[in-house]
Amino acid sequence: MTTGALSGITVLDLSRLLPGPWCTMMLADHGARVIALENPRYASQGAFPDLINRNKEHMGLNLKSDTGKKIFLELASRADVIVEGFRPGVTHRLGVGYDHVKAVNPGIVYCSITGYGQTGPHRDTPGHDINYLSMAGALDLIGSKEAPCAPGFQIADIAGGSLSAVSGILLALFHRERTGQGQHIDISITDGTLALMHLALNLQQETGQTATRCDTLLSHRYAFYNTYETADHKFIALGALEPKFWTAFCRATGLEHFEALQFDDEKRHEIIQTVRDLIKSHPLSHWAHRFKDLDPCWSPVKTLSEAMDSKLFQEREMAVACQNRHGEPVQTIGVPVKLSHTPGSIRTPPFSFGQDTDKLLTELGYAQEEIQALKAAGIT
What we know:
alpha/beta; 3-stranded antiparallel beta sheet; Rossmann fold; 11 strands; formyl-coa transferase, domain 3; 15 helices; transferase; elongated
């Protein structure tokens, strides 16, 4: 029996791609019953990546049909949360928007995740992670001086979209618990990305200088917060921001004469080059041994595979064994929010398309012959 913090909460997930399904995975990991709904014609497209489909049920349902819409509203009348990721206005045109659901379930928490929000001049503009980063001023702070660099993972989608959606849903559920009132949540991935920029904006306001790539306090401007290549072509990350860490680093490397020059703008290029040449003169293992007992706020730059295989994430149960939808053993990412009394868990493997359709229709009271007729008509 599920005993997670969200046990008893039912979520209908109309979203695809990454931001919505990642959000509902987090809810499912903590005990919510998540039912993903998708048009049967997408069955062969594999729109949901396996890694974010765990702990969920799946139903194929054509919302463009009157019967499909009726079935959805029957499910919605029993649900607590709905998550959708269509462009603004699409769910309303389909007849499954917030107002339609509110009419049958006033307490519904209805979360819409879009690139630019339900209002504003870009509400109808398509986009992906790289676009949201660029519009929020984040991409301009990533990369070399020559050009911005698209990161190899989705920052805006997850940090700006998924996590904002999880927060909004939990806030709305808390409000409903006190008042009985549901509400519509408008999540803009670009809004959420801009909200990540507080420190960059604060530093810009304090210095009076526009933040630029590779030239801010925490982006390669100084030697103490930088990345360096080793002799064996690996990299280390140095985060010696506080003077005590910079002092420890300088003493560990024989660079004591730089201790008092941590923030010296005239000497910063010289210091960076000196550290760069020194770190490159020895392999990573040398520096790991040298820094072991001094802790100058450093770390090796690991590949994803190295991170997943590390003792850190093994012991933290963040790199865990599970099964894919075919029952084959795979490695996956665990539950990052650790609760002492109601811990999250991975209970079921990723779903196969439409695997729970019959069960869900039976719960709604449909007879077996009706279920078969819905399949034959392409509604489920």
